[in-house]
Each structure stands twice: as structure tokens, then as C-alpha cells.
Design brief:
single chain, 7 helices, disordered N terminus, 347 residues
Length: 347
């Protein structure tokens, strides 16, 4: 047993010596070629990988700081990646990966504290719930940067406030005990059109606050000119959950042309397939396709002065007041859109 332990220890010493020798050779190569290193990403990578230290690293850090740019949109900071600069595998690093490498390269440097905080926020903002920070290499650098920067525990609670042009919209409290939860704030913005300054404030201030801002707007429905097209939708008067009801569509369009009608349905309202097949058998419909919330009809050419009228059945599966999308009719290159409607579906 003693011999096995001694052999393992000897191997560890040899590995450390080999790694140190490689680091020294790399450091010497960096020092010889220091004048040829111009882009900030390569400079950051050499420091973060351990290939540069001492006065050489100080000169490279200056290149990194000079390569940090500020966004005109949100004031965030990122690291410039000049054209032609790639990772060792030939891929262009993402903004989050480049910022992460810069954060690790600037750690412990007093002149770079402000850059480290801002770049670390850029790293966190680059996280996506669907694919994380990117591929394995990018995720490794980003996770190392996050662990190196955000090691201090969060305050017990943090008050988050949302404002526009300095006027408060909504506020809430983030609980440090529920780190997996997301704080959602929403509020009305009566005059949201135009250019505004949106603000997210944290009290106390915490580094790396990640947020996403979305704006939902509504506009009045504007009637469109008929252009020779009319579509009337006769929805059920008292639809009920689980009970089949009739829907009638009436269209007036130029004769001699084939056309299309897209009828939008509320969420949870399912079309009855046999009744659709019956329309095809009767020659009222050339074909149809169904999807969540809509039925798409292909219509044969209409006869002169003969409106197209078709009735099919639907079955609601959800109760409540639900809105449809906007139905459309298209003939001879012209399209008309029909306003959405609300269904009051009883249980």
C-alpha cells in the first residue's frame, strides 16, 4: 500500500512539474510576442489561462480596458471582438463569453474594479433558460466568472422598483431565500409611445441583477375597405363546455375565383372533423386544415351572385369569456380581415 501511495505522489509531482514547465514556456512566448497582441479578447484569454502574469499581464489588462465599449441603448459594457478574432476552435466568441474571459483576466486588479462589476452583469445577462450561456466552452468561462465575482451572499431582501422617465410604475421585493423564484412587476404606462427612459432600481444595490423588460400595447381596430369581399361569422349563441354547437360562415366574393377563408376560434374550441368532411363531400370546400385556434378553408370558384354559406360544428373544452383571433377572407389577390370576437362559454 505504501508503494502505491508513493507512486501516486510521485506522479502528481511530475504532473505539476510538467504543467509548470508548460506555463513558463507559454509565458515566455507571450512576452516575446507582446507587441503583436492587439485585440482585447486574446489579451484577456492569455491572462485568464495563466499564460501571462506580472508586468506582461499588466500591459495586457490595459488593452482589455481599452477594448471595453458602452452600449448606447442600455449603458451595458461589453468587450470588443475585432473582425477575424476567434476561439481556438475557430468559432467567434459570444458577448457573454468574451465578457467572462475579461472578468477573470481583470480579477484582483485595482484599476479594473469598475470594469469587472459591469462586465459581470453582461455575463449574467447573457444567460438564456433554453441554452444557458452557450456551448460547453462558453458555459465554463461564464460559470467561472460568475463564481469569482458573485461570491458574497445576497441581502435578506432587495426592493426592486420599475420607473419610466423617473415616474414609478411598480415595485416589489426579492427574497434571498427564494433564489429560484422570479419577481414579476407590471403596471400601466398611459403614454408609452415615443422615446422614454426606463429604469430598474435595486435597494440595496446588488451586482448582477438580471431583468427582462417587455411592453404590451393595444390599438383600436380600424375597419378596412371591403374591396368586394365580405365575410360574416355567425357564432353560437350559448356555447357550452362539451356540447357541440354550429358555426356558420357566409362569404361574398368575386365570382369565378377560388379563395381562402381562415376562421379563428377561441382557445380550447375544437372543430368537429366529420362536419368538416361533410363540407368537402358537399362541394362547399375544396379542402381544409385545422390547427390550434383556427380552421383554414380552401374554397372552389363561386357562382355569379351566389354567396358561399357553410356550417360546421365545434366543441368548447374551456369555460369563460375567451376571444378569437382575426378571421380573414382572400379572393383574387384581395384580403379582408374580420375583427375578433368574444365567446361567453358556459360550463
Amino acid at each position: 500500500m505504501a508503494s502505491v501511495i508513493a507512486a501516486a505522489a510521485s506522479k502528481s509531482v511530475r504532473d505539476k512539474s510538467r504543467a509548470e514547465a508548460s506555463r513558463i514556456r507559454a509565458s515566455a512566448a507571450v512576452e516575446r510576442n507582446l507587441g503583436r497582441i492587439e485585440d482585447p479578447y486574446t489579451a484577456a484569454l492569455l491572462i485568464a489561462s495563466g499564460a501571462a502574469s506580472g508586468s506582461v499581464a499588466d500591459q495586457l489588462r490595459k488593452k482589455i480596458r481599452e477594448g471595453v465599449v458602452v452600449s448606447d441603448i442600455d449603458g451595458s459594457r461589453s468587450l470588443t471582438i475585432p473582425a477575424g478574432v476567434t476561439r481556438a476552435d475557430g468559432l467567434i466568441p459570444s458577448a457573454a463569453e468574451a465578457a467572462a474571459v475579461a472578468v477573470l483576466a481583470l480579477q484582483g486588479d485595482d484599476e479594473s474594479k469598475a470594469w469587472v462589476a459591469d462586465l459581470s452583469s453582461t455575463v449574467l445577462a447573457g444567460y438564456n433558460p433554453g441554452y444557458g450561456f452557450g456551448d460547453g466552452r462558453a458555459s465554463l468561462w461564464c460559470l467561472r466568472a460568475v463564481l469569482a465575482t458573485f461570491s458574497d451572499p445576497l441581502p435578506t431582501s432587495v426592493k426592486i422598483a420599475l420607473d419610466v422617465d423617473g415616474a414609478p410604475i411598480a415595485s416589489g421585493t426579492f427574497d434571498a431565500k427564494q433564489l429560484r423564484d422570479v419577481l414579476s412587476l407590471s403596471g400601466p404606462v398611459p403614454r408609452a409611445a415615443g422615446v422614454h427612459k426606463w429604469g430598474v432600481q435595486a435597494d440595496p444595490a446588488v451586482a448582477g441583477l438580471g431583468y427582462r423588460l417587455s411592453l404590451t400595447t393595444w390599438v383600436p381596430w380600424t375597419p378596412e375597405p371591403e374591396a368586394g369581399l365580405t365575410l360574416e361569422v355567425r357564432s353560437p349563441n350559448e356555447p357550452r363546455v362539451g356540447r357541440a354547437s354550429d358555426v356558420t360562415l357566409v362569404a361574398i366574393a368575386p365570382a369565378g375565383y377560388a379563395g381562402k377563408v381562415i376562421h379563428r376560434l377561441p382557445a380550447g374550441v375544437v372543430p368537429d372533423v366529420p362536419s368538416l368532411d361533410a363540407l368537402v363531400s358537399a362541394g362547399l370546400v375544396s379542402s381544409y386544415d385545422t390547427e390550434d385556434g383556427a380552421v383554414r378553408f380552401s374554397l372552389p370558384p363561386l357562382a355569379v351572385s351566389t354567396p358561399w354559406l357553410a356550417t360546421y360544428r365545434v366543441v368548447p373544452t374551456l369555460g369563460g369569456t375567451l376571444s378569437t383571433g382575426a378571421s380573414t377572407i382572400e379572393f383574387a389577390g384581395e384580403t379582408r380581415t374580420i375583427p375578433p370576437e368574444a365567446w361567453s362559454i358556459k360550463p
